[in-house]
Amino acid sequence: MLIREITSEAVRAAIRECNERGRDRFLEHYGFKRARSYYLLFEGKFDDSKAILGVAHRHQFPGRRRLKPSDFSGGKHTVKPRLESLGFEVVVK
Predict the structure, then answer these.
(1) Using CA atoms, how far apart are residues 58 and 75, in angstroms rounded to an integer?
(2) What is d(CA 93, CA 81) in angstroms, rounded to the nearest whole number?
(3) Rounded distance, CA 62 to CA 33, Å?
(4) CA–CA separation, 16 vs 3, rounded Å?
């Protein structure tokens, strides 16, 4: 699965990009929707976990086709365990 290749550095790069663009512009630019339940909590800020992980793939592999929302599922069986395995906190709201 593609998200297994993503590193914590790529996730941090995606978080920075989201902060720079702003949430709505970031989501619109990459075609993701707002999270419904699972949020990445990083430095006191909640981010859309699936979008962050999808964009992290782009940062790690700039020459590859970027991940679209339909390329992987979000939630407790995919995005949450991957982000937690990299040392990030994912919360359900």
Answers:
(1) 20
(2) 16
(3) 22
(4) 19
How many other C-beta atoms can be found within 10 angstroms of the C-beta atom of residue 86? 16
Name residues whose C-beta falls within 8 Å of residue 65's C-beta, 6 or more positions apart in sequence.
Answer: none
38 bridge partner residues? 92
pLDDT tens profile 32-86? 999 999 999 999 999 999 999 999 999 999 988 878 888 888 888 899 999 999 9
Residue 66 one-letter amino acid: R
Residue appearing with tokens 């929302």: 69
Instruction: Provide the 3-class DSSP secondary structure of residue 76.
Output: coil
CB 67 within 8 A of CB 54: yes
* 18 in Cβ contact with 25 (< 8 Å): no
**Separation CA 24–CA 8 (nearest Å):** 23
